[in-house]
Amino acid sequence: MKTGAKILLESLVSQGVETIFGYPGASVLPIYDELPDSGIRHILVRHEQAAAHAADGYARAGGGAGICLATSGPGACNLVTGIATAYMDSIPVVAITGQVPTTQIGNQSFQEANITEITRPVTKQNYLVKKTADLAETVSDAFRVAMTGRPGPVLIDIPRDVSTGMAPEQKQVRLAPDINQEKQIDSKTRTLCIRAAGLITTAENPIILAGGGVIGSQASREILTLAERFGIPVTTTLLGIGAVPSDHPLNLGMIGMHGTVAANHAIHACDLLIAVGTRFSDRSCGTGGLFAPRATVIQIDIDPSEVGKNRAVDLPLVGDAKIILHEIFRNISGSCTTTTWRDQIRIWKHQTDLPFLPESSALYPQQIISTLASVLEGNGIIVSEVGQNQMWTAQYYKFAKPRSFLTSGGMGTMGFGLPAAMGASFACPDQQICTIAGDGSLQMNIQELATLAEYRIPVKILVLNNQYLGMVRQWQELFYDRRYSFTELPSVEFTKIAAAYGIDGVRVESPDEVRPAINDALATNGPFLIDFRIEREENVFPMLPAGAKATEMLLKNPG
């Protein structure tokens, strides 16, 4: 006989779990009592939201599931933003929460919250375990749900008496290593793949749009093969960045509100759009039916509910992107792009796409990110916060491979970057991890500097400090007559805060200090913070205003 807590931890070990991010409390004390002897590394965060984001970053960087653990009531509720962030971006996170004893559920007991109902809209599935004997099977099923089909978060809620209860030793079921692969294609899908091959062969102006699903299905090589074999230009969504190297000649860059001129113009003019692993979100594709108006659309997605939801689709292909692309390759031959289309793409690519930086003593964020890319030579993992810093990173960093850019896309969660970078560092200890933050986002989870310091996690923090909530201020400038209502932030000496936690840092105010500061940070064994005092009202361009056509981009401030 074994306790539920021991059965839970043995079940996690059987699923290959090596690391848990968590914060203890009364309802999970039986689990924490067993943790030191479980063989699982536990990382003590300083807020439960950070545990969820760290598990998310662990999953994004490593490709497996991330695990977080919190107590009942407020602890469980503090996970919700992180769970929702993972849900919006299809990231496999297994959240484990404590709960009051089964006999007290529904009595408004101390630290009781109905977390299964609270998280139902933002999880693939959740479980309230009422019997100790059900724990092993529940854990196995939770991992299956999180990792198969379209990945996503699940939650297991465990009452305290289930953790302390006894049950016989149970057989552990380990999921197969290739769990993400939906290998079977039915005859209908095979027929549709033949049609897709025909459309690709006859198209004159085709474009590939690669989304986050390409990275999730490990289909980057297949996308690159399709692009190179048939000369098809590639655009990406924010979450698809890294699917094709940034400097590849066929990569036109990111589409959408802050996408490149080449990418947005090409999407607008294409006659065939091959959309892979993307749901046509409003930030990527806008609203009002203006996206790719001339195109026949092929959409490849593992989730049938996303096909045709935000944009009408001519040829839906439901299944794993990697397998479907292979099936298309079997039925396609020849070259499809025309000289005219290639020439037009070349013109768009050589336009002044991203703003030119003047020679100046002022410090610009674009220069900082470009310098970081130069120093790292496209290696490492970059984790951004949300806002202007996120868009500048997407535009100016040169990503060389999948899973090298981690960011909150669908939810746009400020405070994601620092804890997600911690998680990425544990998933990929041989990789250099840098997080790029605004001064507003950093302060959302700044307490995690304590976690960095305690475990000497070698994350380098680059703060683009403009003393504003930058993206909100930009909208106020452009669309609200510069009425900066509650977006200015007081100046904070982040290096002093870092020093209080025992973390080295430096303040940078001029361009000639940028490279030496980055080199010093990378040479430091442990965490390091650089506080870059950038031009306060620098904006992100290009910008596609809401409701505008893809060709109606703002390249600079109006007037």
Topology:
Elements: E1 2-3, H1 4-14, E2 19-22, H2 29-34, E3 41-44, H3 48-62, E4 66-70, H4 74-78, H5 80-88, E5 93-99, H6 115-118, E6 125-128, H7 135-147, E7 154-159, H8 160-164, E8 166-167, H9 187-202, E9 206-210, H10 212-216, H11 220-230, E10 234-236, E11 251-254, H12 261-269, E12 272-276, H13 282-285, E13 296-301, E14 315-318, H14 321-329, H15 339-350, H16 365-376, E15 381-384, H17 388-396, E16 405-406, H18 417-427, E17 433-438, H19 439-442, H20 449-455, E18 459-465, H21 470-479, H22 494-500, E19 504-508, H23 514-523, E20 528-533
Parallel strand pairs: 2-3, 2-4, 4-5, 5-7, 6-7, 9-10, 9-12, 10-11, 12-13, 13-14, 15-16, 15-17, 17-18, 18-20, 19-20
Antiparallel strand pairs: 1-8
Helix pairs in contact: 1-7, 3-5, 3-18, 9-14, 11-14, 12-15, 16-17, 16-23
Largest sheet at a glance? 6 strands, parallel
Indicate the radius of gyration in whole angstroms: 24 Å
Widest β-sheet, arrangement of strands: 3-2-4-5-7-6
Measured distance between first and last alpha carbons: 75 Å
**pLDDT averaged over residues:** 93
Structural class: alpha/beta
Helical residue percent?
25-40%
Task: Work out the strand percent.
Answer: 15-25%
Overall geometric form: globular
Spans of at least 5 consecutive residues with low confidence: none
> How many beta-strand segments?
20
Tally of separate helices: 23
